[in-house]
Amino acid sequence: MLSVEQVEQVDKVVPIFPCSCHRCGQALAGNDLHPLRHQVTEIPPVRAHVTEYQFHTLRCQHCDVLTAATWPTAVPRRSFGPSVQAWVGLLAGAYRIPTPPPGFLSCQGPERLPSGVLLVIPT
Q: Which runs of consecutive H residues, i.e. helices, occur in the chain?
């Protein structure tokens, strides 16, 4: 049996009162000092955090040459960060879900999940 969290640790409390007596139908009022407590624990939805780096190319007003922005060392070269790579590793290693071939991991398309990342496993 799971332990019940203290009321102070609960995010939301929903009091549920009976409207009427189950025997005679008379309307009920009052407050139960020790109600039956039922807690539901849920993990909030996960949504991917997507950062877009925009590399601009500008024209020099002096010599008319185009210069493109260089890639900063702090900007990752891969399209997926360490957390996404860890999830793919977990799914492939611990849960034996096959690793998709390159191109099957996408952030685009009509089937995009609420998390923002779509993992397509070929069958």
A: 82-93
Name the DSSP class of 80: S
Could you tell me which residues come within 8 angstroms of residue 116 by beta carbon, excluding any fewer than 6 positions away?
Answer: 47, 48, 49, 50, 107
DSSP state of 112: -
Q: Using one digit for the tens of pLDDT, what is the confidence trace for 47-98?
A: 888 899 999 999 999 999 999 999 999 998 888 888 888 888 888 888 777 6
Token pair 């290693």 is found at 93
Burial grade of 63 (CB within 10 A; 0-12, 13-18, 19 or more): exposed
